[in-house]
Predict the 3D structure of the following.
Amino acid sequence: MSSTGLGAFWENLRNLPRNLRESVLRHGRPVSDRGRSLAVFSNLFLHIHATRSNVRSLRFSTTLGLGVASFSLFLILLVTGILLMVYYAPSTSLAYNSIKDIHFVVPTGRLIRNIHRWAAHLMVIAVLLHMCRVFYTSAYKAPREFNWMLGMALFVLTLALSFTGYLLPWDQLAYWAITIGANIAASPRELTDALGITQVFDPGGIQKQLLLGASEVGQDALIRFYLLHVIVLPLALAALAGVHFWRIRKDGGLAKPGVQQTAAGKGASVTAAAAAPEDSPTKSFGLMCVVRDRSPATNQTVEDTVPSWPHLMRAELLIFMITMLLSVVLGLWLDAPLKEMANPAIPENPAKAPWYFLGLQEMVSYSAFMGGLIIPAIVVFGLTLIPYLDREPEDVGSYLSAPGAKRVAAWSLFIGAVGAVTAVAVPVNFGWLRNWFPDIDQLVIIAINPGSLLTAVYAAWSIIVLKRSGSTRMAAIALFSCFVIGFIILTWVGTYFRGPNWDFYWSPAQWPVH
Amino acid sequence: MPGRLEEEALPRRDFLGLAGLWAAAVAVVGSIAGMMRLPMPSVLPEGGHRFRVGRPEELPAGTEQVLPEQKVLLSSTPEGIAAISLVCTHLGCIVARTENGFACPCHGSVFANDGRVIGGPAPSGLKWLEVSQAIDGRLVVNGGRQVESGSYFKV
Ligand code: HEM
Ligand code: FES
């Protein structure tokens, strides 16, 4: 140590890199298991993870990496979205041209826009697949029911983000898709009109006006969608995702087979330690030991676990890098579409929503109110309630391992597919009620249409399975599998087989030219 | 089957606390409902829906005219003049005039010449709009006021 101030100064300057590193990291390179635990535990961003992870949870087949992929895509969307906001202007006169500038003039603008677009599509796919993975591994069973519910909220938010983002380019596709969407919000009028009470009770009109701030898609709608898309929904999604992750740990990590969740959670040691916590002179156990609670229910022995650092971190980083790679490659390869500027006088023909809403659009083409609101509401409520209606703890943690589960799933996929194809084929070939009875009451069409019949068939099938097998899990598998295949087929039809005037064509090559 | 959490009887002194909590909850829900008043438009920015169209002489009986900006078809018959809205009653696309009626590009609703639905998902016929005459003799269509189908304006 030098006696002069100047010497100390030089000394500090020389040690600056080391001191800087130490002040940021707080610990050296973790070499022991204890050090690795500390690395996770004492870092704000990492400590959402447990310090040790179960080997089984780390296996790719357990999760297929889909939850982490969903969140990675969300992060990619946040970053690219902020970059797009630099130039985007949410005004009907500027929006379209600002997107055009981003696409054709701004350096790297096209790539960033493409990545934002394709990552959004990938996120919808990832979230849907993640939901399937959780369902088929029975991971929604107690104590994870609430996390499944949070997941449904995240699913709805993901779709809402896509829907609100779709309007922003203000091109023909955007304008007409949102016009249709907003009128679906107004479709309870179909019912209130048929009952003749719209004058006094108009929930459809209220919803539409709240959404659009006007009776047509215009400046007010654009600013509202922008606000929802860039602030409200991302914040809500980020907050709920935080709770979702936190619950995974509090519910005892990922679902594992052979572990019966007990009511008391961690159990005996907790009760023993809780006997005299308050007046203990020395703090000899962590906070978790004195909280009498059913969480965290770890139910695992140290032998099945490895330190989360580096094993879990490495797995997460790998998934993140793969999603990133996929988004960038798609962004370089395919351009996000941009049609002509919105023209309120001429609808795009066919006016198609983004692909994941085309199954909905297919059902809307039978009845707006039934297909656009009631059936989606039934589906979302039904999915949300699954963990509360099926509480059998048997096959938790592995894919369809209960006896007979695979057979029920296969049959349900088959029946669901036949039902969905029939629901499309009949109206395409023979028309529907109004073509046969021109003066038929609208209430009859709302109640009886291919969409509502399909839903009823799915429900009936799952009740049959319930009766035959006596198992709520089998009934849930039947219903969920029907939903999955119905969604896929209707989406497929809407995407590839519908052309101008929503007519059925085997291929776009047969579309009439105009 | 018992739940995971034990049920406990409500101690009397907790009652007031609970009542307070409920009051707070009601206040929060109430103010959220009140906050929705702000985004709820009380004046629609489109303003009036009335617009002037041509003079009756320009539209002799047996002719018709499509006004794409206003999304209206003016149709002149010996019985008088009618304005039929071209906004599809299904989900708001603009219908196209066809040889014997109207067809919607979005989900294939089909309407007859007088606007009746004859196919597709539209729940009701195309709207007939009120037609009147201004002092200067020009016709005025009120896009905000629907009239009975088949009610013509007699010049
Ligand atoms: C933005 C959307 C979502 C994100 C970012 C997300 C993220 C995650 C992550 C990272 C995990 C850890 C395990 C894994 O990677 O699979 C997880 C688990 C879980 N998720 Fe999601 N999730 C989302 C949506 C959903 C949906 C739609 C559902 C179902 C309705 C759901 C239900 C669950 C459940 C129950 C678990 C616990 C699974 C187990 O214990 O094995 N999540 N989620
Ligand atoms: S908007 Fe006309 S048929 Fe759907």
About this structure: The two ends of chain A are 87 Å apart (CA to CA). Chain A has three domains: 2-30, 61-266+311-344, 353-514. The pocket of protoporphyrin IX containing FE (ligand 1) is lined by residues A 63, 66-68, 70-71, 74, 127, 130-131, 134, 139-140, 144, 147-148, 151-152, 154-155, 158, 241, 244, 248, 254-255 (CB under 6 Å). Chain A touches chain B through 50 residues (CB under 8 Å).
